[in-house]
């Protein structure tokens, strides 16, 4: 069994750490939010007073944080804009395996990975797909960038949290693949919301329409596994007023990362750019903290106050 330090116990990190503990590993956890730490203790993890204490004595350390600035602050010691950094790489003994599961910009992933290597540590970028339900069920997809040997070393632990484990390529490749995936996710979520709203306005039942499209050529993950229309599926954010899940502001972040990649390679991404505008508009209307499938509300008629 492995002693693991786990930092960042939000919608995703909480259930991921719980699955590692369930598999019998010793999981030392830290989050800035005390309630998240409490939930992790209830799931069998061990609370640490701070991030440094969480990684002490661990062979493997995992971070699951919102964005690149948080990851750089934790591992490299830069300020994340709100608080000072921690330079935790400096606290780790050589040979420790650092796994960052956050979805972050490629430059930050490479910067942290190279700094880790320079200190004799091992590092992989390992962003995930599968949502909160996948994190809870231990069925996530891991998309890994880094050395093949480090991927192989991480695999037994990743398998406690996920079902599909992919090595995308060298350092940063996990993030590139993840951005391609999330751009596509944003496009089919917005498209699914649009198609459902079109049918419902013409009198169709959203559940019946979802079943029909689900067995037809319009089928996709947003429709089948994460239906945005309230009342169509249980156990999805649409069934709980879009609480929990994948926040719109995080999707906006990911679409920004995809646009930066497109800029870098002069790639044409017209559908991604449109999706980014839609999710930006939705976030600007005060929806940043709600699950991204609430984009369906953009398509609903509002009452005319006059
Ligand atoms: P979240 O906001 O729910 O969780 C992030 C956690 O990090 C919070 O609990 C926060 O308190 C903690 N945190 C931030 N800075 C910290 C620090 N310095 N020390 C300790 N804890 C700190 O976000 P999430 O939904 O769990 O997403 C995490 C990452 O996973 C993001 O990069 C996101 O894009 C990605 N992701 C999310 C989903 C999803 O469905 N929610 C799916 C795939 C990937």
From TrEMBL:
EC annotation from Swiss-Prot or TrEMBL: 1.1.1.31
Pfam families according to UniProt: NAD_binding_11, NAD_binding_2
Biological process terms in GO annotation: L-valine catabolic process
Keyword NAD set for record: yes
Domain 3-hydroxyisobutyrate dehydrogenase-like NAD-binding per the UniProt entry, residue ranges: 172-299
PROSITE patterns membership: 3_HYDROXYISOBUT_DH
Keyword Oxidoreductase in annotation: yes
InterPro entries, alphabetized: 3-OH-isobutyrate_DH-rel_CS, 6-PGluconate_DH-like_C_sf, 6PGD_dom2, 6PGDH_NADP-bd, HIBADH, HIBADH-like_NADP-bd, HIBADH-related, NAD(P)-bd_dom_sf
Protein name: 3-hydroxyisobutyrate dehydrogenase
Gene: mmsB
């Amino acid at each position: 069994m492995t002693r693991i330090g786990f930092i960042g116990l939000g919608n995703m990190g909480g259930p991921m750490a719980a699955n590692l503990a369930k598999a019998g590993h010793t999981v030392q956890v830290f989050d800035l939010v005390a309630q998240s730490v409490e939930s992790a203790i209830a799931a069998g993890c061990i609370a640490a007073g701070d991030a440094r204490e969480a990684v002490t004595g661990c062979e493997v350390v995992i971070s699951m944080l919102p964005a690149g600035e948080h990851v750089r602050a934790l591992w490299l010691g830069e300020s994340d804009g709100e608080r000072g950094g921690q330079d935790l790489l400096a606290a780790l003994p050589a040979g420790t395996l650092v796994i960052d599961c956050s979805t972050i910009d490629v430059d930050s992933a490479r910067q942290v990975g190279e700094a880790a290597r320079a200190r004799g540590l091992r590092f992989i970028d390992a962003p995930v797909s599968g949502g909160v339900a996948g994190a809870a069920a231990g069925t996530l997809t891991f998309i890994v960038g880094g050395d093949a040997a480090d991927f192989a070393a991480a695999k037994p632990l990743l398998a406690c949290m996920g079902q599909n484990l992919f090595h995308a390529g060298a350092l940063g490749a996990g993030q590139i693949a993840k951005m391609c995936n999330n751009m596509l996710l944003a496009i089919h979520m917005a498209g699914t919301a649009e198609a459902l709203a079109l049918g419902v306005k013409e009198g169709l039942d959203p559940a019946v329409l979802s079943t029909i499209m689900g067995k037809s050529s319009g089928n996709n993950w947003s429709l089948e596994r994460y239906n945005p229309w309230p009342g169509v599926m249980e156990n999805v954010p649409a069934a709980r007023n879009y609480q929990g899940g994948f926040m719109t502001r995080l999707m906006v972040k990911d679409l920004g990362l995809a646009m930066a990649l497109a800029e870098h390679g002069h790639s044409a991404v017209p559908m991604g750019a449109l999706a980014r505008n839609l999710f930006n508009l939705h976030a600007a209307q005060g929806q940043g903290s709600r699950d991204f499938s609430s984009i369906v509300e953009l398509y609903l008629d509002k009452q005319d106050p006059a």
